[in-house]
Amino acid sequence: TSGRLLTAFARTMTGVLALLLAAVVGLAILYLPNPGALLHTAYGQVLLIKIAVLSGVLVLSAANHLRFVGAATSGSKQALGVLRANIAGEQFGLIAILAITEVLMRQNPGG
Fold first, then answer.
1. Which regions of the chain are under pLDDT 50?
2. How far apart are the first and last CA of the chain?
3. What angle do CA 17, 21, 26 make, to 5 degrees?
């Protein structure tokens, strides 16, 4: 019941975040004129920040799925506490990604 829902949610979110990371990388390849633009343009630098934050959220999601969901559904109070903190961290990270995306949309990919 709630354990199955928690497991399904963790699995789904890890997949969604991995797809989001792949989309960001794919769009970078399409939008940036060359690989050097990743470091030498405002767009590329903001994109690197977005990738870093998204990677961190993906690590939290994977940790939840691989370590804490099973323990929390088995009744571990400590795992449940860590899971709650990680989910809050994921939510904060996703809000940050939305804010970074807003900044990114105002940049010129070519320079």
1. none
2. 52
3. 145
What token pair was written down for 73?
A: 């559904």
Contact (CB, 8 A) for 17 and 64:
no
CB 71 within 8 A of CB 79: yes
Give the model confidence (pLDDT) of 52-71 as tens digits. 999 999 888 888 888 888 88
**How far apart (Å, rounded) are the C-alpha atoms in residues 16 and 54?**
11
Using CB atoms within 10 A of its CB, is residue 63 exposed (0-12), middle (13-18) or buried (19+)?
middle
Measured CA to CA, the distance from residue 17 to residue 1 in angstroms comes to 24
- Pairwise CA distance, residues 87 & 81, whole Å: 10
